[in-house]
Design goal:
By secondary structure, this protein is mostly beta strands. The chain folds into two domains: about 55 residues, no CATH class; about 120 residues, Nucleic acid-binding proteins (OB fold (Dihydrolipoamide Acetyltransferase, E2P)), CATH 2.40.50. It has four helices and twelve strands; from the N terminus they run ααββααββββββββββ. The strands form three sheets. A five-stranded antiparallel β-sheet has the order 5-4-3-6-12. A five-stranded antiparallel β-sheet has the order 7-11-8-9-10, with no helix packed on it. The chain has a two-stranded antiparallel sheet with strand order 1-2. It comes from Paenibacillus cisolokensis. This is Transport-associated OB type 2 domain-containing protein. It holds the Pfam family TOBE_2. Keywords: Cell membrane, Membrane, Translocase.
């Protein structure tokens, strides 16, 4: 507030991502002395340009693989570690093409857990660990050899999950970032 009241430009250098997000109207993320991305805190967090930025600002789950088949708003995604997932995609996204390697980046708070997948729209996994943090819980869910972090508000549904439960992970195409590096 002082900075805005005085109306001066301030350059603040920090490795504390939360501090950078709360104090800044523009952030420059640097790697090895070079600027990788410049933008508002929201742009940097929501639309990182690569895996370095996505992993540096907040936490992100990364799924690396190749698109086997795209059909409408879904794509069959072959993970580099083996296994196939059906994931949501934007039908108009030209980066999602058959045979093209991609990295899906999904923030933990953008994934929703359910115990029922009767609509067959989720990615199946097993809860390996749960950390209760008051208003939310953090789940580590194993999906085809990958450990994905999921954060969910603690409401009546969330309290129903237990370690070892088979669950379905759901996210929309808008809640993932498609990266090429």
């Amino acid at each position: 507030m002082i900075q805005k009241e005085v109306g001066i430009t301030t350059v603040f250098v920090t490795h504390d991502q939360e501090e950078a997000m709360t104090l800044s109207d523009r952030i420059a993320v640097m790697k090895e002395g070079k600027i990788v991305q410049i933008g508002s805190p929201q742009e940097i967090y929501e639309k990182p340009v690569n895996t370095f930025v996505a992993g540096f600002i907040g936490h992100s789950n990364f799924l690396k693989g190749t698109v086997l088949e795209k059909s409408g708003d879904k794509a069959v995604f072959q993970l580099d570690s083996g296994g196939k997932l059906v994931v949501p995609v934007e039908p108009s996204d030209s980066r999602v093409q058959n045979g093209k390697p991609l990295i899906l980046s999904i923030r933990p708070e953008r994934i929703r857990l359910t115990q029922d997948d009767s609509a067959n729209t989720g990615v199946k996994g097993t809860i390996k660990f749960i950390t209760y943090v008051g208003s939310l819980s953090t789940y580590l869910v194993e999906v085809m050899g990958h450990e994905l972090k999921v954060q969910q508000q603690n409401d009546a549904d969330a309290r129903a999950f237990r370690q070892g439960d088979e669950v379905c992970l759901h996210w929309s195409a808008e809640n993932q970032t498609i990266l090429t590096e």
